[in-house]
Amino acid sequence: MSEKNIGTVVNSAVIKNPVLFEAVGIAPVVAMATSLKTAIMLTAVTLVQMTVIELFACKFLKMLKSRFRVLVYAVLGVLINIPMFSAFSYFTPNEAANVSIYLPVIAVNSLIALHCERFAVRHGIKETLLDALASGAGYGLVVMLTGIAREFFGSGTIYGIDLGIKIKFSGLLLPFGGFLVLGFVSALFKLIIKKRYPDEKPEAAFNLSEISQSHFDSIKNLFSEDFNPFDYDSEADEDGTNPFKAAARRSEGKKSERKKKEPSPSKSGKRKKDGQKESKYEIIIENREDFPAVEEQTPEQPTSGIENISSDSKKYESEFDDLLSELELHKRKNEKDGDEK
Amino acid sequence: MSIIADLISAALYAMLFQNFIFTGGYGASEAVRMSAKPKQLYPMTILITVFSTVVSLICMLSEQINYIHSLGTVGHSLVFIAVLSVFYIIVLFFVVSVLHAKKRTVRRVGIAAFNTLVLAVPFINYRAAFSLAEAIGSGLGSGLAFALAVSLINLGLRRLDKCENVPDAFKGTPAIFIYVALLSLAFTGISGRGLTL
Lengths: 341, 197
Known about the structure:
heterodimer; A: mainly alpha; 2 domains; two-stranded antiparallel ribbon; B: mainly alpha; 10 helices; 79% helix
């Protein structure tokens, strides 16, 4: 196996573990992985599902639109689950009966849709197979660890063999126990990754940048003009094939023609009270406020990566300020000359 | 009157007394991920509520057909996924052609339709032998349960985000999981379920 492939496997299975660091596919782990036997069942189903569906998506679904692909993943998931469920019912009837509700439900495991959309439809067969096996193995590893821990502490057994433990925490067999064990397994993985791969940031896999925003804001936005979830005019039609978007573009074109004929006050063309139009640089200054402020940075700070970009921005900002002040001086000079004349 | 009472009690059951996300783990991934991007909570909640309610209702009506009623878990899973798929296509057509939705919104319709929460509701109705009113109530309740779960997780995450005492290894998803575990424990208590199975 080449170094690149090993890197892909480590990345998909450990560093960006789908359950632990991306919070994907939690439901089956929490609800189903209560013992080693059920964990093995879940791992087997997920591995088969991931491999088959990802390969199918890679080979046949690249031309299909994303909105229809998700439907195919779900249907395929159920069709794959049925023979597997029947096999489990034959070999381990008790365990299969216990998890009978979960097996059909895991057909819509978000892990599969995510990996198909993110990887399978954008890569070749070989890379897709590797990703499916690696992420399936990563998922299986977490499922197994969770199953073993919950069975050991919750039932005092491992693979149904009684270990003679008298104190049992049977609450761990409930979903809350699954979340709790996942939390500790996730912290353990994070510690290991920090030690072995100090440059990697597993927490970056799950974007938490918007957490500080209030969900109550969206209620306020419902009543403001800018909240328009079904308005697609601002979004580009990537392939240009959508007839609805084309129709909307045509109607938009007519609107803009009408606007050209009858000029109306707009943001860029505000008129002053005395009837004079605002000067160009005043508009530039006004519009500059729309852009995010450039980070304040001291020269002592390290200048790598993003920091380089912000120092460049600062440089350009100062150049822009100089240019504006020159324009302002020029304008005043012209005004003085005009007054004198 | 009893129909309304059944509907409300089933909705409350699904939302509060046995919140499907916390006490069953259904739709937990979507709830945790959505709580990190709370601004889209309401459109997503509306979509999930529509899907869970309508699919639950149609699946319950299909139970009136003797052939479907006699099917086992495997047969029912096929019927439920078929109902969900057909309804998804109808909603997709409506959202794209009538509402002219953004690409991002269209993608969200897929996430709202194909998740464990929406598919679990008809299974729960089937196993609990719910009536029609109760099936509608559990569909509505599961959508509201999602909104409640996301709101509660988001409130906790915002505090965790500001907290500096969290050890490095627990920052991010580990802390989220443990926080969700505590919420799940609380809802297990509300449902009156003992910790011994």
